[in-house]
Amino acid sequence: MKKKLEYVQKILDKALNVLATILFFGIFFVVLLQVVMRYCLNLPLAWSEELARYLFIWISFIGWVFATRSGTHIRIGAIVDNLPGPAKKAIGSLNYLLTIIFACVMTYYGFIMLQKNLDVPTVTLFFTYAVVYVAAPFSSVLIIFYTLSKFITGMQDMGGTLS
Fold it and tell me: Which tens digits make up the pLDDT trace of 27-50?
């Protein structure tokens, strides 16, 4: 099972890296275009600020996935780091559980927001707000996958029975 998880994770990692790169360059070029159009040509674009904001929202959610994937969320480990091994493992498992619960709640409410905005158009762009709101359940499902993957891999490394 560990090999299968690593294979899926490798594919997801590549896809997320490509998506993050596209989003980042998208926001860069949209803002650059707006600066050139506004200050050089005196023809400001009505849609660029809105698109840049939505791209930033997507980048933020993808950043949450990256931080979960690499384990780089901000944490205060002064107490946990000084606990004995079994207590540290128990708190780590609790952390995984709470992360999964939070991501499940985000997925659930993200889908509700998505459904409520399927027919609500953005102000200046050609798509609905559902495109913006789908970032929450999309990233939450990935968080659940990466957290479960870390938990299962950790259990197998400790000699657990998950297989």
Answer: 999 999 999 999 999 999 999 999
Q: Which residue has the tokens 């959610």?
A: 61
What's the angle, vertex CA 72, arms to CA 5 and CA 92, rounded to 5? Answer: 70
Q: Is residue 158 over pLDDT 80?
A: no
- The 10 Å Cβ neighbour count of residue 119 is 9
With a cut of 90, say whether residue 144 has pLDDT above it. yes
| This prediction's pTM | 0.88
d(CA 83, CA 138): 35
Tokens of 25: 């360059």
Q: Which residues contact 154 (CB under 8 A, 6 or more apart)?
A: 92
The reported pLDDT for the residue numbered 162 is 46
DSSP codes, 11-79: HHHHHHHHHHHHHHHHHHHHHHHHHIIIIISS---SSHHHHHHHHHHHHHHHHHHHHHHHT------TT
